[in-house]
Automatic annotation (TrEMBL):
Protein's cellular compartments: Periplasm
Protein name stated in the entry: Sulfate ABC transporter substrate-binding protein
Protein family according to the UniProt entry: Belongs to the prokaryotic sulfate-binding protein family.
Cited InterPro entries: Thiosulph/SO4-bd
Species, as recorded: Williamsia deligens
Length: 377
């Protein structure tokens, strides 16, 4: 909506007044565009006021969660005098911005390497994973397959994505942490957790070359692309699938969806960290502590994100239907890939995201090479 502007000017100064009006509107539109994806009023509730102020820089997917969590925190004694500004976007892009010293007090990224980048840039402490429970990961999800209502292509498992004529939407792993999780799920399933590297990479190669037609920058852009009618299957976070399913009653028929949790899928872990250069560390800690509180965990669960506190996990289990026979983790995959790389190169074995990113997504990673080649061998 354009801003309402009242102009009072004499005939002699009308030209100057009109010029000022045009410049004012252009400036307003520029500010709005530059801040796209960022808001200080989730749900129409003012969250910016307070004698303390936090800048939250996050990847795109958890915005609906923070839109509920931040007002809940501000209703507590600890949070009532803390205001917020928010910025959302593709995880890798957001991380690189903070590394360039874009103002931030708290970061929440899709994957651990996007926090590691900030450690190397001197923006986040080395021990960030030890500062909060669960390796500083307050919520998560699993990789799901979002399909058109009624599942007309009968998509049930990863192999179904490679059938002739099935078009898949998933973001680009070069910019999106969501894309990495999305690709790790079938890679782990097809490779036996990294034990058969060739089988896992052959699946990714066939998926990229024959079935992925668009590569949005972020998980949220991928969801929007699917909502606009592109693709038969959206590989996504379960919380995105839940959000879309909740909109079915009000959505036009073309945008109604079902979703499938494959029998083998991947556990998504999205870390938070406090920026070491923040001048509001005490307020930032209070907010992150709230994310791990029972109240905060219940809010995350209501927004479709899987909680990490055992008692809340048990209490909200019905919110996350679907049977998972094997839930692969970064720990599982990193241990296998790191040991394999050490055996191949003679270098010390790495684990976790360090091993996974190096072997699959780094500048010389195998999946990066597949994308660079467009899926061609």
């Amino acid at each position: 909506m354009f801003p309402s502007v009242v102009v009072r000017a004499s005939t002699r100064s009308r030209g100057v007044g009109l010029l000022a009006l045009v410049l004012g509107v252009v400036t307003t539109l520029c500010v709005s565009a530059c801040g796209a994806g960022s808001t200080d009023v989730p749900g129409g509730i003012d969250i910016s006021s307070g004698s303390h102020h936090l800048d939250l820089v996050a990847y795109a997917t958890p915005k609906p969660g923070f839109d509920a969590v931040i007002p809940a925190f501000r209703s507590t004694p600890a949070g009532r005098d803390i205001g917020f500004s928010q910025s959302y976007g593709a995880s890798g892009d957001q991380s690189r911005k903070v590394a360039r010293r874009v103002p931030a007090d708290i970061v929440n990224f899709s994957v651990e390497p996007d926090v590691t980048r900030l450690v190397k840039a001197g923006v986040v402490d080395d021990d960030w994973k030890k500062q909060f429970p669960n390796n500083s990961t307050p919520f998560g999800s699993v990789v799901a397959l979002v399909v058109r209502k009624g599942n007309p292509k009968n998509i049930r498992d990863w192999g179904d994505l490679l059938r002739p004529g099935v078009e898949v939407v998933t973001p680009n792993p070069g910019s999106s942490g969501s894309a990495k999780w999305n690709l790790l799920a079938p890679f782990a399933a097809e490779s036996g957790g990294g034990r058969n590297m060739d089988a896992g990479l052959d699946y990714i190669r066939r998926l990229v070359s024959g079935h992925i037609r668009v590569n949005p920058k972020s998980g949220r852009e991928a969801t929007t692309t699917f909502e606009q009618g592109q693709g038969d299957v959206l590989i996504s976070y379960e919380n995105e699938a839940i959000m879309l399913a909740r909109k079915n009653d009000s959505a036009p028929p073309s945008q109604r969806i079902d979703y499938v949790i494959p029998p083998q899928t991947f556990k998504i872990e999205n870390p938070v960290a406090i920026v070491s250069t923040s001048t509001e560390k005490a307020s930032a800690r209070q907010f992150v502590d709230f994310l791990f509180s029972d109240e905060g965990q219940r809010v995350w669960a209501r927004q479709g994100f899987r909680p990490v506190t055992p008692s809340v996990i048990a209490a909200t289990a019905a919110e996350f239907p679907g049977r998972i026979d094997k839930l692969w983790t970064i720990s599982d995959l990193g241990r296998v890939l790191g040991a394999s790389a050490a055996q191949r190169t003679g270098a010390p074995a790495t684990t976790g995201w360090k091993a996974v990113d190096t072997e699959l997504f780094g500048t010389s990673g195998a999946i990066s090479a597949i994308y660079d080649a467009g899926g061609r061998s």
